[in-house]
């Protein structure tokens, strides 16, 4: 797919009678922020639409304006256009059956992940962007769409989260974008930091202790890893979403080229999270793609059918 211009994208959106807008499963702040902002835009231009994420939006992200209008129930009927935001790989939309039923619906993409398997017909896939929210910000500017405070807030959340509050990027552009949103709409990054990072549960911290005490260094493939089993969570009445923030701390380890965190989501279903840092020069997105996942250079993930042990072996083999 060749990237479209913003004007071309606007034409495609205006032409569609109704739009199904969707983001990836296991949504993060950029996924929710971009989908919510896009929803506000569609509402303003009076375009009938349905906002969808096929897995539940975590409680911790419901402070994002518009997050509550995102549905998790699959629509039955056909849409004129599908718009996918921030999803990286088509399977992460969780819409395989819908795609099979309606293969003729065109897919428009707004994404900042590496161009891999978005499977879109048109749109923007550009890893130079920090976040899907930053792509949308440029889109709204290019088509002279006036954003309001709710849209500005949702976009700021996505940019701040995906840049780790500017710790993962050397690019001044997302910083300038947030600066202009802060000035124009009086948005407070400190308040967003508190909502995103200051809500760790005491019980979650105890599980964190268990995860940390298991940390191991695979010397042969040079990575650090740990894991979480279902019973760790059920013992403390927690959900996997309670631990998302904790996972990102693994990247700060001095040892290893990258870190791996494995989560047993259910019997035989493993989710892997990979983390690296600019100074480690290890591209975890490339590794994730080799084993059927995707993501960014420094934060990627994959799903695996099997055990924690077999997932570990897979990563060890493909990272060597
Ligand atoms: Mn993103």
Protein architecture, described:
The chain has helices spanning 6-15, 29-44, 96-101, 132-142, 149-162, 172-185, 189-197, 202-213, 230-235, 244-247, 284-290, 308-319; strands spanning 19-23, 49-52, 81-85, 107-111, 122-125, 216-218, 223-228, 258-266, 269-275, 294-295, 299-305. The chain is α/β, with parallel strands linked by helices and 320 residues long. It folds into two domains: 6-196, inorganic pyrophosphatase (n-terminal core), CATH 3.90.1640; 202-319, Diaminopimelate Epimerase, Chain A, domain 1. It has a six-stranded mixed sheet with strand order 6-7-8-9-11-10. Strands 2-1-3-4-5 form a five-stranded parallel sheet. The longest helix is centred in the N-terminal third of the chain and has 16 residues, at 29-44. It is globular and about 55 Å long. The two termini are 31 Å apart. The model has no long low-confidence stretch (mean pLDDT 93). It binds manganese (II) ion (MN). Residues 30, 86, 112, 131-132, 162 line the site of manganese (II) ion. Manganese (II) ion is lined by residues 30, 86, 112, 131-132, 162.
Topology:
Layout: H1 6-15, E1 19-23, H2 29-44, E2 49-52, E3 81-85, H3 96-101, E4 107-111, E5 122-125, H4 132-142, H5 149-162, H6 172-185, H7 189-197, H8 202-213, E6 216-218, E7 223-228, H9 230-235, H10 244-247, E8 258-266, E9 269-275, H11 284-290, E10 294-295, E11 299-305, H12 308-319
Bound molecules: manganese (II) ion.
Manganese (II) ion is lined by residues 30, 86, 112, 131-132, 162.
